[in-house]
Amino acid sequence: QKEVEQNSGPLSVPEGAIASLNCTYSDRGSQSFFWYRQYSGKSPELIMFIYSNGDKEDGRFTAQLNKASQYVSLLIRDSQPSDSATYLCAVEDSWGKLQFGAGTQVVVTP
Amino acid sequence: GAGVSQSPSNKVTEKGKDVELRCDPISGHTALYWYRQSLGQGLEFLIYFQGNSAPDKSGLPSDRFSTERTGGSVSTLTIQRTQQEDSAVYLCASSADLAKLFFGEGSRLTVL
């Protein structure tokens, strides 16, 4: 079992709709959770982080964390073509090491 | 510096040759990570340096891979006797705030 699991996609989303991305992790000791965005041919960039159970909103992005279910999600509201990218879920494990999922490709269609 | 700097940006080598990749992290960042990303794949953890602590090398795929970090700053990743399966983009990232990583542009390695 991989430590961080994501659906690979592609997730096709109409422009203006909500994109919902999911991530599960195996290490119950994990405390910090991150979403990175990676455009094709580019390096990942941090877009959201969350440490506590519940929701965290930043602009059009909302991260949701449920530690009991070992589940973290990312919602992108009012999706734009510029949101088309691969979204990587990252989890800091019990040893302070950041583990990444394989990423979910999002395609926003005009 | 303004960001994480990696060199070379592109390296083509022949199977069996040694290669050295360099990472210059953001000034003041104590944590440094190396990841590997094959085409269309996620990020594979290789190694993690945190300050003066012993590095976490648990992700290095074989003993052909070695790393150094000098003076808590610049890091090199050396791959000896390269194989075709070593072809990938090698990404370096640094962090001041644990796990909020800033990535370099990567070094694309192609082994012929």
Short note summarizing the structure:
The complex is a heterodimer of chains A (110) and B (112). Chain A is built from no helices and eleven strands. With 110 residues, chain A is an all-beta fold.
Q: Explain this structure to me?
A:
Chain A is built from no helices and eleven strands. With 110 residues, chain A is mainly beta. In chain A, strands 2, 4, 5, 9, 10 and 11 form a six-stranded mixed sheet that branches. In chain A, strands 1-3-8-7-6 form a five-stranded antiparallel sheet, with no helix packed on it. Chain A starts with a strand and ends with a strand. The model of chain A has no long low-confidence stretch (mean pLDDT 93). Chain B is mainly β and 112 residues long. In chain B, strands 2, 4, 5, 8, 9 and 10 form a six-stranded mixed sheet that branches. A four-stranded antiparallel sheet of chain B has the order 1-3-7-6, with no helix packed on it. Chain B starts with a strand and ends with a strand. Classes of the chains: A mainly beta (110), B mainly beta (112).
Task: Please give a handful of descriptors for the protein shown.
heterodimer, A: 110 residues, mainly beta, 6-stranded mixed beta sheet, 5-stranded antiparallel beta sheet, 55% strand, globular, B: 112 residues, 4-stranded antiparallel beta sheet
Q: What ranges of chain A have pLDDT less than 50 throughout 5 or more consecutive residues? A: none
- Can you tell me the overall shape of chain A? globular
What kind of assembly state do the chains in view correspond to? heterodimer
What average pLDDT do the residues of chain B reach? 92
- Rg from alpha-carbon coordinates of chain A: 13 Å
> In sequence order, what are the helices and strands of chain B, one letter per element?
EEEEEEEEEE
The total strand number of chain B stands at 10
**Beta fraction of chain B:** over 45%
Number of helices of chain B: 0
DSSP E strands of chain A, number: 11
Poorly predicted regions of chain B are none
Question: What percent of residues of chain A adopt helix (DSSP H or I)?
Answer: under 10%
Structural class of chain B: mainly beta
Instruction: Give, in order, the helices and strands of chain A.
Output: EEEEEEEEEEE
Count of individual helical segments of chain A: 0
